[in-house]
């Protein structure tokens, strides 16, 4: 195996990491145990990664969290960022920038019906902007201040976003949360019994699941509900694509009760589902769309909160109210590296026709997973959209009892030992950390897809 890099003092780096880095989403013990070294990624190319020991990995999750949509090692993005930074790196506040204007124009062309882009740095921040927009509008439009979010959806890590968080593991011990956020039920057909909709299927189920949102609006009082925030396909909460008929009914409900529709495209946006945005698969017309991860594929930090003209117009100058402008700023939202990277990222997706590749590779991934389902009784459900797929593991297909978390993690670890990185959903509902996640870069080849699912096949055989 050729290792395409050299690292000076790998041992020193490993020990520095062990001594000083507080890792995301991790318990300390494995990092402090001197018998186990922290895994440090050093280089990437396409879907391949090399860690500090020289081991090669195939990345089946686009940087762990559905981000590196165009793959690793894209020198042209790095060059564009470098050129931009040398020319003009930053001026914050209300002044504009060349790449900021150019990317906003290009993005809006992909989003008919929307017209304004507010820049920030992370998905959480973009969602916070959206929540603040809704709250500020509520102050002018009566009492419509409540924001609905869905069980199992995740919108970010800040206290505001956790207030809109439907995942218990992420929320536990961080409350009290902000008032005025109200949960609506999820729409996972495989678990429809939990929703009391076990007797329905197909479009009937989808419409009924959407009607559960209507019930919450009616219970809370439509005059108090300002917005509904949903992921197009729930990501960390279990890879939950919407059932047939769900989104059109959600749109109808929002229109009927004058509820702004905020779609969180932080994961699904920029090609992951096979369209530029997940909502576009359903002909939905959102009022607010937030996006982050794939916008610049992790080559720079950038997120966007995009709105319609109608939303923007609510912040028009009003002599009677000097506070009626969006009083929001993120220092680094004015950084030019993000939009410079995003412009190149978008150009790559267009030039390489990656949306078509997503469609083709999605079919292959789903077919492979369905074949695995025939072979392994532990796979209870296979679902997904584009290059964003999940396999829910169960202890018993009949009762659908989730497979024990330790076993799910053993499958992930076995794949890791084979040099294949896959993900598993977090504990959105206690005992529900049981969905394997596959979200390779949009450039994935048929061989890479097969390599991924072959590793899962071997891991399932060994672990179960
Ligand atoms: N929204 C969704 C759907 C996400 O999955 C995430 C992160 O995983 C976020 C928002 C938060 O994004 P960030 O981690 O960039 O703040």
From TrEMBL:
Keywords: Pyridoxal phosphate. Pfam families: Aminotran_3 (PF00202). Its cofactor is pyridoxal 5'-phosphate. Transmembrane segments: none annotated. GO terms for molecular function: pyridoxal phosphate binding; transaminase activity. Belongs to the class-III pyridoxal-phosphate-dependent aminotransferase family. This is Tpa. It comes from Oceaniovalibus guishaninsula JLT2003.
